[in-house]
Amino acid sequence: MCDKMVAHLDFYLTFADLAGTSVKAPGIKPWDGRSMLSVLEDFNNPWPSRFLITHIGRWNSGEVEKHKYKRFSIKNEKYSLVNNTELYDLANDLGQATNIASEYPEVVQQLQKQYDVFWNDIQPHLVNEGLERTRPVQPYFTLYKDAFGKEAFDIANEKGKKDRVEYHERRIARMKGSANAQN
Fold first, then answer.
1. Any residues with CB less than 8 A from the CB of 52 and at least 6 apart, and which?
2. How would you write the pLDDT of the chain (183 residues) with one tens digit per residue?
């Protein structure tokens, strides 16, 4: 088992290293990817601290600031700040069941500060800002409607939405149960 904080954004540079190329990192910020090769070769190799940031950026044009603190998280090796109000201790609460933000306001402030630096850095890269927002084309939905009609599609789609909600509720309950079992 490896206790290093790695993520999908590390794959590109890792694969480049494995291939022996001299590809340069697309960025050098604390949230940019890095090669995992040295850690894969030996889990004891050093791996500097970092922040992992996720943000689901879907909003109407002109509403960037309104969505800055919605649907995001920033993590370091110990804590995860979610939606700017929820803080979790990842070492002791992997299922993120207990919000400890009120107990550690200095940690919340530190993570907020790093997130703000990230947010300001990505602003020039928001290439879809100002464009008309369209719904994605879902070819299987179109095929189903064509084959069975709109009424049958609407019934199946509502059932699918309900099933997805129930699935996520079961998944969260399992995660909380697993986290409680570890404590």
1. 5, 7, 31, 74, 75, 76
2. 567 888 988 998 899 899 998 777 767 776 788 889 999 999 899 988 889 998 887 777 777 888 888 889 999 999 999 999 999 999 899 889 999 999 999 999 999 999 999 988 888 777 666 667 677 778 888 888 888 999 988 998 898 888 888 888 888 888 777 655 555
**Closest-CA residue to 69 (of 129, 183, 79, 59):** 59
Amino acid at 143: L
Identify the DSSP state of 133.
Answer: P
**By the 8 A CB rule, do 81 and 64 touch?**
no
Of 53, 46, 25, 26, the closest CA to residue 116 belongs to 53
Structure tokens at 91: 């070492």
Alpha-carbon 30 to chain mean position: 15
- The residue type found at 147 is A
CA distance 153 to 146: 9
CB distance 54 to 45 below 8 Å: no
Let me know: does 176 contact 96? Beta carbons within 8 Å: no
Task: Report the predicted TM-score, pTM, of the whole model to 2 decimal places.
Answer: 0.67
Cα 30-50-83 angle, rounded to 5 deg: 90
